[in-house]
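Protein folding task:
====================
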Amino acid sequence: MSDRPVRVRFTTLGCKVNRVEAETIAARVEACGAELTEGDAPDVVVVTACAVTTEASHKARKAVRHALGLPSRPTVVVTGCLTEEDAARVAALDDRVVIERDKDAVADRIRDAAGLPVAPAGPVVRAGEGFRTRALVKVQDGCDNRCAYCIVPDTRGTPRSVEAMRVLAEVRALVESGAKEVVLTGINIGRYSDDGLDLAGLVRRVAETGVRRIRLSSIEPPDLTDRFVETVAAIPAFVEHLQVPLQSGCDKTLAAMGRRYSVAEYERVLERVRDAIPGVAVTTDVICGFPGETDADARESEERVAQLGFAKLHVFRFSARPGTPAAARPDALPPTTIAERAERMRAIGEVARRRFLESHIGTTHETLVESAHEGVAVGTTRDGARVRWRCATSRPGDVQLVAIEGVDGDVLTGRIPDERSGRRSATIEPWQ
């Protein structure tokens, strides 16, 4: 390679854990002197590949082939769940493909191959100016729930936790670099355990760093225990938002999926959370068209989901993943049936989302500015809603009170109250 910096491009697919792992790799190679690029002339492309569904595996292999076809003929380093499930097939695509199952070793592989210097000691983070003000922090990996549709226990392994000392060091570095919010993420985050410290204790310790906001990526219903809810409800930095997967509103389907709760038990969890954390927004995942799901089961799921008052639904069509019990079932549904049920569930989700967003109108919310361009700022409230407003002085990383005035699609619109004059600042018209 020439004397110019080694150019490294990242293609990241799948979950938030993949994203935070890719960001960590990027931070390490940048600290060694590499140049991060989104252009078409990289020396190295790192593909963090998902394999949670057959379609995800297909997209990951397509991303590898695309990287191989770039005119600069880069080395393509592939990591992520696909390397556990389909390494030989991916490696056979080209001699320039490098398989690295250990994500912690990816940066070292790039550094050694390119002759880059060793990065300085200590946590390496990317935050502050030019980067996200909401930072993902991986605290846990692996899962042993063995849901019937999921391959993740095979690709990610059994639950294991990042040492609290490492988590806290990373959060402190992020705060010093300008991050106002951290999102604690993992595959099954409720299983966090480090020398007697559980997730509730970890959240309390993270709050002691002085970070302004703490959010979780997702947490399973059984892990929302009395102790956890009581602990986080007393922490001012913990935001009013939880992502709690439901997967189905029908007990029969939940049992077939291998989920370890009933709809009634899930509803009691919601009541506990809503009683303890006023104004909390709960978002969820729902799978439509699981094998054996009857029309009556689907309607029951739709009715219960509509009643539970979610702030947002992430609706998925069932996709058979080879190697899982669900994929071997003989009672798979036609794709058209699955699509129709998913469409009905999405319509329910749209109604719920609209109701949630409209509930903000006439209220004022603390909003973290994430981008500002040509006098238009975009940010996120504590309960996870996106807001857009006009303000020439807003900058990424600012925390501002925004008076909510309307809804434009999936985004709230508002204004910064002018307390000195009592005048209203300019509001934002819907995008044309």
In short: The two ends are 47 Å apart (CA to CA). The chain has 13 helices and 20 strands. Residues 335-358 form the longest helix (24 residues). Confidence is low (pLDDT under 50) at residues 419-432.
